[in-house]
Input
Amino acid sequence: MLELRPTCECCDRDLPPASREAMICTFECTFCADCAREVLGGVCPNCSGELVRRPVRPEAALARHPASTMRVFNPDCAARKAG
Output
C-alpha cells in the first residue's frame, strides 16, 4: 500500500492524497511535479530512480487506508536548481 506522503521533499509543498501533481519513485520518495521536472530532471535524488505520477487513491478507500502524515523535507534539494 502506498504511503501517500503529504508533501514535496524538495520544496515542502502540500500534496494531498487526491493531488495529480505528486511524483514518486519506487521507494515512495515524494516530490511535486515542478520540482521533479525542473529541479530533479525526473530522477529521484535519493535512489536515482525514475519519478512517475503517484496514483490517486479513491476517496472511499482513504477511510480504511488513510494517507501518511509523515512529512519529509530536505532543504538542500532546492539548492540543486541554483547549482
Remarks:
- The chain has a mean pLDDT of 93.
- The chain has one domain: 1-65.
- Residues 1-65 form a domain with the Herpes Virus-1 fold (CATH 3.30.40).
- The longest strand covers residues 22-24.
